[in-house]
Amino acid sequence: MRIAVNAIFLQKNQLEGYGWFVQEVFSRLAKQYPEHEFIFLFDRPFDESFLFQKNCSAVVVKPAARHVFAFKYWYDLAAAAEVRRLKADVWVQPYGFCSLTSSVPQLLFVHDISFKHFPKQVSWHQRFYYQWGTPRFLQKAQQVLTVSEFSKKDILLHYPISADKISVASGAARPIFHNIHWAEKDAIKSGYADGREYFLFVGGIHPRKNLMNLLKAFSLFKKWQKSNMKLLVAGRLAWQYEDLIDKLKTYKYREDVVMLNYVSDEQLAKITASAYALVYPSLFEGFGLPILEAMQSGTPVICSDTSSMPEAAADAALFADPNSPDAIAKQMLAIYKDESLRDQLIEKGKLRAAEFNWDATADLVWNAILKTAPPSASTNKS
């Protein structure tokens, strides 16, 4: 079977949620199924480390697909023509969009439909493309995957597709996230937080991640506790971040907020393992992998009580209303003042993170590929 994989977000040193999911899943599938061919479609020069096994190859299809008009051209014309030329049996679309013109059966990943809940937090042209395209993509695709039961229910609530067509394949914490020695933790604290304990936020900086309310909560925590704790923010400047950066200039505790921007994955893993707690007050998530990665690192978690996050964290985190800085601050205070509670969360978190693994996720994706493939590709499918 020839499996074409949309790989436009596999960019060296720029992997985020989508990219990590594709790398973790398809590196395993290529190794597990050497009799099948995996062809990765990039829209720009790529790093050969993404050719995971000998049964992997790549093609570059231009122009780069990074805005609405380019998406339309790339998916429906340029890439569709290339996939037809390659005589692929299946085309895997991991990023929420698919081709509306291709006759090749497509497996579509829709991680979430946050644009339905927070339409003003994306640009008008992207919002239009999501709103116009998503129902068409869901109808066009032979099979649909999403990353949580919450997202599955959310998609079914908003779009008229059969429940049998959509299945769930959650992600997991990457192996590089694990506990580290106290001496290494002290070195991280010295390098990033002046030797102090710190709360950590991980994720791209844009309105849905709710950093403004996190700053308000941090102010309340500092006011109540008179602590020298720091707040580290690890994530790239994504979109609509200007107001946050402007507010930081006059923020009372700005000397205790460290904006790390994008850091290497190896450093992020160490920073996560060294944190006093992860505070993840996002307004909406399809799943929330930083929650599991913190738990696997032995770091307790405070997260939102909305969307998929209670599903991801189960009973292993403290929850807060993301719209209430007071509620977030109270959980920060609780975990700071109660070492026994913190220890319990660490142990529960390790157990919860262990319930997810990438091998199981890869198996679920493979099953969806088999469902997507036409009968003519049945030879050597198992």
Summary keywords:
13 strands, 43% helix, 382 residues, six-stranded parallel beta sheet, single chain, 14 helices, 2 domains, globular, seven-stranded parallel beta sheet, alpha/beta, Rossmann fold
Structural account:
The chain is of the alpha/beta class. It folds into two domains: 2-172 and 358-377, 3-Layer(aba) Sandwich (Rossmann fold), CATH 3.40.50.2000; 182-353, 3-Layer(aba) Sandwich (Rossmann fold), CATH 3.40.50.2000. Helices cover 43% and strands 15% of the residues. The chain is built from 14 helices and 13 strands. The chain has helices at residues 17-32, 68-86, 114-117, 124-140, 149-158, 182-193, 211-225, 242-248, 265-274, 289-296, 309-313, 325-337, 339-353, 358-372, and strands spanning 2-6, 37-42, 56-60, 90-93, 106-109, 143-146, 166-168, 198-202, 230-234, 257-261, 277-280, 301-304, 318-320. The strands form two sheets. Strands 3-2-1-4-5-6-7 form a seven-stranded parallel beta sheet, sandwiched between helices. Strand 8, helix 7 and strand 9 form a beta-alpha-beta unit. The mean pLDDT is 91.
